[in-house]
Amino acid sequence: MRNKKKRPFAAAVALFPTWAAVLVLYCGTMAWTVYLSFTNSTLFPSTQMVGWKQYETLFSTARWIVSLQNLVIFGVLFVGGCLAIGFVLAAALDRKVRYESVFRTIFLYPYAMSFIVTGLIWQWLMNPTLGVQKTVRAMGWESFRFDWIVDRDMAIYAVVVAGIWQASGLVMVLMLAGMRTIDDGQWRAARVDGIPVWRTYVSIVLPQLGPSVASAATLLSMGVVKTYDLVVALTNGGPGGASEVPAKFIMDNLFQRHNLGLAAAGSTVLLITVVLVAVPLSYARHMQAKKMAGML
């Protein structure tokens, strides 16, 4: 009994530095950022409180509103596209295809790259004077266009395409792991009933991938909110701010315009967005796991 009482205390002592780091570095930094958003801080932090003035300035800035709109467009298409393509790739590999490990490595390889590298690759591909457009036009198709990075209406979709190309492999791995846990008896029953393979995946396999889908959606959603380097490398927020995102708006105000208070206000808005996204997804994942445990 004495040893059992000592173990929790020893564990608490061992974890104390970690908890202290979390409280000071994470929670403390977030609290400091929220505090600065209510001050008139510019190049250096200030203690002069200005109330909600920074937030009023923030939401009256057209560039910030455009960045929020782009965040919604990018988030919906990026998460939805990654989940759909990742599921299709996982289903294809789940059929025990030949050289599965090779294909799995190829599909996952883009995720090993940084967003900077991904952005540069797609910048070259969509460059109208260097990339795919020039190559296809040289073959005789003079009207072909693939210059999204210089098109105001298509720039944000160029970011979506590059993001999906990089992150779909991660979703594939998560869903493939979930598919490999499904009982083979369900497949045998589906074959006996004459259910097509695609219908089996959609109606039988997909509903059982709740934890995998929730985990993938959570990871992708967190990536959406902090999207910065991909945009900088691919379009730098252009043309004319058409592909601006909140993270770039914040970094520009912090390091270029030296408006610390406005940058802190934008960061606080993103923090609230993360909480609003993460909490429901975490709750859904917890309930799905609890439901699956109850079924077992």
Protein model, in words:
This protein has helices at 2-36, 53-59, 62-93, 100-112, 115-126, 132-138, 155-179, 184-192, 197-205, 210-225, 229-234, 246-255, 260-295. It has a single domain, classed as MetI-like (MetI-like fold, Orthogonal Bundle). The relative contact order is 0.13. Helix 3 runs parallel beside helix 7 and helix 3 (62-93) runs antiparallel to helix 10. Helices cover 73% and strands 0% of the residues. It is mainly α and 296 residues long. The chain contains 13 helices and no strands. The protein is flat.
C-alpha Rg, in Å? 24 Å
Give me the number of helical elements: 13
- Topology as a string of helices (H) and strands (E): HHHHHHHHHHHHH
CATH architecture: Orthogonal Bundle
Distance between the termini: 33 Å
Shape: flat
Quickly name the level 1 CATH class.
Answer: Mainly Alpha
Strand content: under 5%
CATH topology value: MetI-like fold
Low-confidence stretches: none
Instruction: Give the number of domains.
Output: 1
Give the biggest beta sheet. Answer: none
Total beta-strand segments: 0
Helix content: over 70%
Question: Mean of the pLDDT scores?
Answer: 86
Strand pairing plus helix content: what structural class? mainly alpha
Secondary structure: elements and pairs:
Blueprint (H helix, E strand, L loop, with lengths): L1 H35 L16 H7 L2 H32 L6 H13 L2 H12 L5 H7 L16 H25 L4 H9 L4 H9 L4 H16 L3 H6 L11 H10 L4 H36 L1
